[in-house]
Known about the structure:
Order of helices and strands: EEEHEHHEHEEEHEHEHH
CATH topology: Rossmann fold
Number of strands: 10
Number of helices: 8
Distance between the termini: 25 Å
Shape: globular
Low-confidence stretches: none
Structural class: alpha/beta
Amino acid sequence: MEKITLQTSDNLKIVGNHFKVPKPNPGISLFHMMPASKESYSLFAEQLNKAGIGVLSIDLRGHGESAGGNYQNFTDEQHQSSIHDVEAAVSFQEQEGHSPLFVGGASIGANLALQIIVEDKLVKKAILLSPGLNYRGIETVPLAKTVAKDKEVYIVTAKDDLRSGGANDQQAQVIFNQLKCKKKIKIFEAGGHGTDIFKTHPELMDELVKWLKN
Length: 214
């Protein structure tokens, strides 16, 4: 693993953990939940890397080692501008020569992952851990309706997750129902929120790796 620094289109320094593989091979960019950092994906990144997938896990602006202030003081507009961090990560993976490109996100990171799979034609698959209908103004239903039919989305959530202002599994189901692409959803009875699901269901990491490589 190497630590890298990216420059966003709005001139912020974003720090990421980069797990290299020989090219050409798939590449995935990972976006964390709040409060969390790029390290929340460490175990998953190692498994992805062992499977031959290049991984870039970034600290979103205002988190961890990245610039941008303190996310706890962010307006909704500042949270929404994290899409520039996501774009920089995907662009880096493209420049590295990875193909196809994938993304994964947890909580607000999941909403951002859904946004980038809509906006970037090179992103082919997205893993969404505990997506919400509206995290800080990043609304997923309008996005889900516009995911291209040749792309794939895998949603994971848990019934005991109440962090997002209601039962997260119900919100995830609404998002899933709006997708017109190839899609899959897994709803655990218990598992918590975002990347916490990996702690209670470590077997999920293997399943997601296989899904990406299929």
